[in-house]
Amino acid sequence: MNLHFEDRQKLRALAQPVQPARDLWPQIAARIESQPRGSHRRFRWFAMAASFAGVAVLAGVIGTRMMHADRTPVSAAQSNAFIAANDAPGARWAPADPRLRGAAVELHAAQGELKQALAIAPHADYLQQLLERTERQQSHLQRLEHEAG
């Protein structure tokens, strides 16, 4: 018990504030004043300008890609024929070209998932737009296959 009491006295003695041997603030102030401030300001402006330029470029790229994705021309007759062909039981696009075959599998899987999601939320406009875009992509690939022969 005596040992515990002595340890607590030693800990209390350590908890007392200790004054440094000399005043440190003049050296700290001298170091702060000796640092050039102009380079930091220029660097901040450069960093800010670079970040704004990066955001502008990113927004431009995203906007351009969205404009080109929605610009795929599909006539009403083609889209109706495509929908009728896809809704027919057992009808599935199976291209002979192996490069298009992989895309056909992915598009068919995406269409199935989107139709399931639309069955859960039939009034979801975004899901309907995604399904239409997927159908346009498949129609576009079918035209490419037909044109290639």
State the gist of this model.
It contains six helices and no strands. The protein is 77% helix and 0% strand.
Detailed description of the structure:
This protein is mainly alpha-helical and 149 residues long. It has a domain at 96-149. The chain is built from 6 helices and no strands. Helix 5 runs antiparallel to helix 6 (125-148). The longest helix has 32 residues, at 38-69. The model has no long low-confidence stretch (mean pLDDT 79).
What are its keywords?
single chain, 149 residues, mainly alpha
Major beta sheet summary: none
Discrete helix count: 6
N-end to C-end Cα span? 97 Å
- Element-by-element helix/strand order: HHHHHH
> Approximately how much beta-strand content do the residues carry?
under 5%
Name the structural class.
Answer: mainly alpha
- Shape, principal axes of CA atoms: elongated
**Portion in helices:** over 70%
Number of E strands? 0
Backbone CA Rg: 35 Å
Q: In terms of per-residue confidence, which ranges show pLDDT below 50 for 5 or more consecutive residues?
A: none
